[in-house]
Design brief:
single chain, alpha/beta, Rossmann fold, four-stranded parallel beta sheet, three-stranded parallel beta sheet, 11 helices
């Protein structure tokens, strides 16, 4: 049994979901009433956001590597970052990590590929939508990523940090997010949607819709369980 080192706190609400989903997925596969070994290093979301806002990506990478070193000292076997946005620097961090890492983007790409999806909308923080790390990874499997307009990205980003990170769920926000998704479907013929912020499933997960929603939190948690049991 491998022990996962989870870099959490980015944000705290979705870290709680990760913990629950990992245990749930483990118990679905292991029926001996045991629980999986998990060590969480909860880091400071505000530091990461400040560095992201000022394009200080080297500081982001250094901070994440330091968090990995702490988990390595605790003798975990592999690492997962419980958030999408920090994957902007994932390649650098992975290259510097003393332990294997399970990528949320690669896990989501595998899920999209298994479902036969070819053009996906992406909702997440402004940092995630403006960056190209999802596009870079998905293009390797000939899957296109479509993002909202600049104005829509600003709206999603503002609501992400003023509401979703704080687990505030507002019906008007939900309706606007679904309207953005519908526009992407109508104008860009997307055949699925990546919930590319681990807090976004808090507001969209249970929606009845005509598109598959790829819940990156659940997908990543499943990949973590698979690695634990491999």
């Amino acid at each position: 049994m491998k022990t996962v080192g989870l870099i959490g706190g980015i944000g705290p609400e979705s870290t709680i979901e990760y913990y629950r989903f990992i245990i749930e997925g483990y118990r679905e596969r292991i029926s001996d009433r045991s629980y999986p070994p998990i060590i969480i290093n909860s880091i400071d979301l505000n530091k990461l956001v400040t560095w992201m806002e000022t394009s200080q990506l080297a500081e982001v990478a250094d901070y994440l590597v330091a968090a990995i070193d702490t988990l390595a000292a605790a003798r975990v076997d592999f690492i997962a970052i419980a958030a999408n946005t920090p994957h902007i620097v994932f390649n650098e961090v992975r290259a510097r990590s003393p332990l294997p890492m399970v990528s949320i983007v690669e896990a989501t790409r595998a899920k999209a590929s298994a479902l036969g999806l070819r053009r996906l909308g992406l909702l997440g923080t402004g940092f995630t939508m403006r960056s190209h790390f999802y596009q870079d990874v998905f293009t390797e499997k000939q899957i296109e990523i479509v993002v909202p307009t600049a104005e829509e990205q600003d709206y999603v980003h503002e609501k992400y940090f003023s509401e979703l990170v704080k687990n505030i769920i507002v019906p008007e926000t939900r309706a606007r997010l679904l309207a953005i998704v519908e526009r992407l479907k109508t104008e860009h013929a997307i055949d699925g949607l990546v919930l590319g912020g681990t807090e976004i499933p808090l507001i969209l997960r249970d929606d009845a819709n005509t598109l598959p929603f790829l819940d990156t939190t659940r997908i990543h948690a499943t990949a973590i369980v698979n690695e634990m049991l491999s």
